Description:
The chain is mostly beta strands. The protein has two domains: 2-26 and 399-488; 43-388, YVTN repeat-like/Quinoprotein amine dehydrogenase (Methylamine Dehydrogenase, Chain H, 7 Propeller). It is built from one helix and 39 strands. Strands 2-33-38-35-36 form a five-stranded antiparallel beta sheet, with no helix packed on it. Strands 1-39-34-37 form a four-stranded antiparallel beta sheet, with no helix packed on it. The protein has a four-stranded antiparallel beta sheet with strand order 5-32-31-30, with no helix packed on it. It is elongated and about 85 Å long.
Amino acid sequence: MYIPVKFPPGIYRxxxxxxxxxxxxxxxxxxxxxxxxxxxxxxxxxxxxTVTGACRxxxxxxxxxxxxxxxxxxxxxxxxxxxxxxxxxxxxxxFAAGFVDATSTTGYGKNLYGYFAYGVPRPDTGTANVATTWxxxxxxxxxxxxxxxxxxxxxxxxxxxxxxLAAAITNAPVNNKAILVTAERILFALGxxxxxxxxxxxxxxxxxxxxxxxxxxxxxxxxxxGGSLMAGKRVKGINLLFTxxxxxxxxxxxAPFVYGFEKAGSGCGLISTQSVAAIDTAAIWMxxxxxxxxxxxxxxxxxxxxxxxxxxxxxxxxxxxxAVHNSKFGEIWWFYPSNAGIENDSYVIYNYRxxxxxxxxxxxxxxxxxxxxxxxxxxxAAGEVNEHEVGFDYDGAxxxxxxxxxxxxxxxxxxxxxxxxxxxxxxxxxxxxxxTRLYPTGTESTYGPYTAANPTSVRFSGRQVNMVVTGDVLAxxxxxxxxxxxxxxxxx
Length: 492
C-alpha cells in the first residue's frame, strides 16, 4: 500500500522524539510555505568592510533627499552605511564601550573544580553584566540611539562623505537603558537617569527640551513594576514598554498628563532588549518562560518547539537574543546562543500567518526586515552585513527536513518499504534518506541518500521510520507530499 507522508507544516520538538509522530521533527534552512517544503533563500555580502565589535542593533531609513542608510551599533562603535555598502564610523567622541559578552557573578559553581585553592572561600561578589546592545530609532531624517552601557542618547545629523560624528543630545537624561520615538514625535528615554522604572520624554518636536512646563509636553512617569525597563515598540495606536518581568502600554492623551500608562501583562518580560519584533498590528517577543504576542491583549503563544529551544539556549548569554521580522513570509526569527557556545548560532522561527514553528542553525547577531532596502539585512559574527533571501549560497550549510517516526496501524507491526514516489517541482533536485528503529530508543539504522526518481527503489524495514529530505542542488526546489510503498510484516 502507498502511504502519503502528509504532515502539518512546521516542526514539533516538545517531549520525546516519538511524540513527534505524524509531524516534522528537525530541520535546517528550510521553510514551509504554500503547502510545500522549500529552501530558505541564501545570502550575499552587502558591506564593503566589516564593523568593529559585536553588532547588536541595525536600522534602515531614508533622509529627506531619499538617500537610504543603514545604522549599526556594536558594543564599541556606531556606524552608518550607504546603499553601496560603504561603511563610516560615526561613533560619538568619548563614547564608553561596553561588553562583547555577558558576565555573571562569582560564587559557587562559577569556575571549574580546583580554580580556587582548597579552603579559600569563593566570593559571591561582582556584578552580572549583560552583553551591550543598542536601541536605535529615527528622529525625522536623523538617527538617534542609546547604548545600554554608555547610557547617553546620541543623534547623528547626517553628513556621510566626510562623516560627522553622532553627538549627545543637549539636555537629554543620561544613564538610560533604551529609547523610543513615538508616533507623536516625542522621544522616550527608558530607565531614565538610572531609575529602572522611569520613563522620561522630551517636548513634542524638540528633543533638546526635557524640563516640563505649562507651555510644553515634556514629562516623566515611574511605572508600577518590580522590573527594569528594557525596550519600547510602536504598535498601531499604542506604545509598548517592556521590562524584564512585564509589559506596559503608553497611550498619548494630550496635556496635562501627555501619556496614560497601564500594565498590559505580567510574567512576560523580555529575555533580551532585542527579542521583540513589531508587525502591523501586534508585537511578538521571546520571554524567559516562552513566547508572547500583544494584539490588544498580552497572550502566550503555544510553541511546538519550546522544550527544544529553552533546553538548548545558553541562558548566561540570553542578552544577545535578537528578533528579526521577515514580512515577505510572515516570519519572526529569533537568533540565540546555544549551549554549545557563547554567540548566536541557532534560530527559532514563528510563522504568524500559518501558525507554525521552525528551527535551525545560523549565526546572526542583528537583522532588519526588507523595506527601505529590497532585501532583509543581517549581520554575522565576523561583522559583515549580508543581504538575505537571495540566491542559493549557504556557506556550505546543509538544508534538510526530518520527519518524526512513521508507523503503520498502532505501531506494533514491522513494515517493509520498497519504493518512494516523489513529489518534486523538478525531479532530482532533492535526496531522501531513512532512519529505522524497532523501538523508540532502539538501535538506529540509516538507508540512503537516494536521488529522487519516479519511482525511487528502496529496500529496508523497521517498526518506525524517519524520513529525511535534503536539497541536493543549489536551486529553488519544492517538496510536496511524498508517498511510500509499504508492506506490513509481522510483529517481529
